[in-house]
Amino acid sequence: MLDHIGVPVSDLARSRAFYEAVLAPLGYGVVMEVTAAETGAEAHCGFGAHGKPSFWIASGKALTGCLHVAFQAPDRAAVDAFHRAAMALLAPDNGPPGLRPHYHPNYYAAFVLDPDGHNIEAVFHGPA
After folding, report:
1. InterPro entries, per this entry (predicted)?
2. How many angstroms separate the CA atoms of 101 and 113, rounded?
3. In the structure, what pLDDT confidence band is assigned to residue 1 with cuts at 50, 70 and 90?
4. If DSSP states are collapsed to H, E and C, what string results for the chain?
């Protein structure tokens, strides 16, 4: 349904480092950057795969409240690696890797908080 989403962050460099570390195990990385001069406003960093940015962060005033973003993982091991990468960065744990059968029997996910306190999830929907 969605082509891409953009989220303003309080510290672009800090958030970029966080997302580079936690999205790498899922197969995502920085695929595009746009400077403030190019946009006429804020700098942007786009994450995705195969040259297509789908998740953007931008400098500026961070959102208030809690945003929830779930990233598809290719398997359960990638969910585990996502969580380990976040823990290595001392990100707050918001739900360790494991099954969430209240969603469906194969829903395997982990949740962490990003530098601005948003709930970031890695999820795999297939069987073990």
Report:
1. Glyas_Bleomycin-R_OHBP_Dase, Glyas_Fos-R_dOase_dom, VOC_core
2. 22
3. confident
4. CCCCEEEEECCHHHHHHHHHHHHHHHCCEEEEEECHHHHCCCCEEEEEECCEEEEEEEECCCCCCCCEEEEECCCHHHHHHHHHHHHHCCCCEEEEEEECCCCCCCCEEEEEECCCCCEEEEEECCCC
Mean pLDDT of the chain: 96
Q: Which two three-digit tokens encode residue 6?
A: 């953009």
89: its two tokens: 């960065």
Q: How many CB atoms lie within 10 A of CB 82?
A: 27
What is the domain-level CATH number for residue 18? 3.10.180.10
pLDDT in tens, 31-77: 999 999 998 889 999 999 999 999 999 998 888 888 999 999 999 99
Q: How many domains does the chain have?
A: 1
Q: Tokens 């690696």 appear where?
A: 81
Lookup: tokens for 19: 């997302």
Instruction: Give the range of the structural domain holding residue 81, as residue numbers without chain letter.
Output: 5-59+66-124
